[in-house]
Design brief:
Number of strands: 9
Mean pLDDT: 75
Shape: elongated
CATH class of the largest domain: Alpha Beta
Order of helices and strands: EHHEHHEEEHHHEEHHEEH
Number of helices: 10
């Protein structure tokens, strides 16, 4: 028997490549939650990788053998992957007798868009890009970063669809979900009209280069809220240590629209 291949389980991320139709906040929850439910488990992620790399469909028995798990457990993982559209049933042509008994059910990976990126050095990329921007236009680093963040936030909101004409609280809840989808861990303080960010996906880059990273964050919040029909000028108080929260005040800029 051949030696089962070794699989490394990276972190999965989705491009949320659904049609750009308007969807409810519940639909936004499902878009983000579906990916986590399907590929959040390391074994399930490994099974998906194995199927994606395999030249032919594999049965649940083969999956169980490769990952040293019970066949029922293998079927459970395959069912979850099938439910979320990452795996589908396929015809299986075994090398045994033909025309005898029922063919074993096999599975193959679908073409659903998902990228698996273990070991990417985004922290290094951020550091180097900050140096580039600082040399190109050092006087306007924060402004450029905020403009880029605003553009990205708007694109992010439009790419997954947004609730039609949401109220302030629903808009901020959608904002938190969208930020969560790209790696932020955000909680909403509706009474104070602010966000508390307990995890920033930019890590040490945020504390090393707050003039750029915090401006990006501020721009993303403004861009998303603008796409949700609530123009605002966020005020961000950055953390000074990785275990502290960032505080982003999200006041809706009603008065600003009327200024001359």
């Amino acid at each position: 028997m051949e030696e089962p291949p070794k699989y490394s389980f990276g972190v999965a991320s989705s491009r949320f490549d659904e049609p750009r139709s308007k969807q409810s906040l519940a639909g936004l929850d499902r878009s983000i939650g579906g990916l986590v439910a399907a590929l959040g488990d390391p074994t399930r992620r490994g099974i998906y990788l194995a199927l994606r790399q395999s030249a032919e469909p594999m049965t649940s028995a083969r999956i169980a053998e490769l990952f040293s798990i019970h066949p029922n457990v293998a079927r459970h993982h395959l069912d979850k992957l099938t439910e979320e559209g990452f795996v589908q049933a396929a015809r299986h042509h075994s090398g045994g007798r033909s025309g005898v008994g029922r063919p074993a059910k096999a599975y193959e990976a679908t073409r659903k868009s998902v990228a698996i990126h273990p070991g990417r050095r985004y922290d290094l990329l951020v550091d180097l890009l900050v140096r580039v921007i600082s040399r190109v236009d050092p006087a306007n680093v924060s402004l450029i970063a905020e403009q880029v963040g605003r553009e990205y936030g708007k694109e992010l909101a439009e790419s997954v669809g947004t609730p039609a004409e949401p109220g302030y609280e629903e808009a901020v809840a959608a904002l938190a979900k969208l930020m969560g989808g790209v790696g932020f861990e955000v909680s909403v303080d509706s009474e104070q009209r602010r966000l508390l960010t307990s995890h920033c996906p930019f890590g040490e880059a945020a504390t090393d280069h707050p003039e750029v990273v915090c401006s990006l964050d501020r721009g993303m919040v403004a861009g998303i809220m603008g796409a949700l029909h609530h123009d605002c000028l966020p005020v961000l108080t950055p953390h000074t240590a990785l275990d502290e929260d960032c505080v982003t005040e999200v006041p809706v800029a009603v008065a600003i629209r009327g200024r001359t």
